Amino acid sequence: MSAAAPVSSRLPVFPWDKLTSYRTTAAAHPDGLVDLSVGTPVDPVPGLIQRELVAAADSPGYPTVWGTPALRDALTGWAGRRLGATGLTHENVLPVVGSKELVAWLPTQLGLGAGDKVAYPRLAYPTYEVGARLCGAEPVAYDDPTELDPAGLRLLWLNSPSNPTGRVLAKEELARIVAWAREHRVLVFSDECYLELGWEAEPVSVLHPDVCGGDHEGLVAVHSLSKRSNLAGYRAAFVVGDAAVLGELLQIRKHGGMMVPAPVQAATVAALGDDTHVAEQRERYARRRTALRAALEAHGFRIEHSEASLYLWATRGEGCWDTVAHLAGLGILVAPGDFYGPAGDRFVRVALTATDERVDAAVKRLS
Ligand SMILES: Cc1ncc(COP(=O)(O)O)c(C=O)c1O
């Protein structure tokens, strides 16, 4: 009997490995590497969040998958206040161990498989496709989801603001997509992890009453504290929306032991109760964005979309790997657009997640 093909053979090549030689080139710059490739936060975890984590360090017992009542209160309170979602109860929220695991394992946890389709934007965070492939469902990239064939389509991913393009879907556009998905009984998961990082647009949640009519059926929003609170290292994220969908996920995740550590739950409560650190962090990114944008444009780049999120979606009108090589020669590492789909092959994604000192170094090198 032949052995089954390894699960990893269903997955694309881990793209970041392809950047290794460019990283080596960029790191050889006499003034050192400016890494604008991965969107990983570099600024400190705000003090009030660190204090809550430490205060909860003595947590000998198992945490619960659903989270403490205090955490659920924080999640419903924040979603009501910040997203404008109405009528939320604890049944409408569920913490997750960072949103990447949720994105990757959601189709599996929903019981999808061969014969089912999972759709996501043509240019997208690669983990939507990975999630479809992990469970054997068919991944489908879309330009406009309402042009998809709804037959067999079981899960529709939205991502506004978008990684990698920074594009924001207007309220009317979201409402049109939600109406279509409801008509065809397609479950919508809306990845809104950059919602607090709008620059030239005000991102709106799929749970806003103007989008969903105050009814969460068939809709779930995905949120993360990684970017808004510099908590990527804590693995703190959550989903909000349709109670029936989240109730099912809760059962599965309980059996699977997918628990957010108790100190992280406590830290999340503190983080969601404070808007000041979010505003301060936004200011840092806004300054870096203005400086990088001007320097890139002066260097001959054209920036598309990028009205929100932590990225500038930039092109010099050449293949993305030529641009990666050009910038690596200046000691600047960026992500090639084709990491996010073949449609990105003439763009690079420039992250705003470097210190002020490193951003200044990049600006100098581009001038
Ligand atoms: C669109 C999108 N979704 C989800 C994630 C995962 O974030 P985390 O797992 O830190 O919550 C990222 C991270 O970059 C992202 O860009």
From TrEMBL:
GO molecular function terms here? pyridoxal phosphate binding; succinyldiaminopimelate transaminase activity
Q: Which cofactor does it need?
A: pyridoxal 5'-phosphate
Q: Which PANTHER family does this one have? A: AMINO ACID AMINOTRANSFERASE, L-GLUTAMINE--4-(METHYLSULFANYL)-2-OXOBUTANOATE AMINOTRANSFERASE
Give one Pfam hit by family name.
Aminotran_1_2
EC number(s): the record gives 2.6.1.17
Which EC class is the enzyme in?
transferase
Q: Which residues form the Aminotransferase class I/classII large domain?
A: 33-366
Q: Does the keyword Lyase apply?
A: no
Q: Which InterPro entries match?
A: Aminotransferase_I/II_large, LL-DAP_aminotransferase, OxyQ, PyrdxlP-dep_Trfase, PyrdxlP-dep_Trfase_major, PyrdxlP-dep_Trfase_small
Q: What is this protein called?
A: Succinyldiaminopimelate transaminase
> NCBIfam families from the xrefs?
DapC_actino
Q: Which SUPFAM superfamilies match?
A: PLP-dependent transferases
Native species: Streptomyces nitrosporeus
- Record key words, sorted: Aminotransferase, Transferase
Lineage of the source organism?
Bacteria, Bacillati, Actinomycetota, Actinomycetes, Kitasatosporales
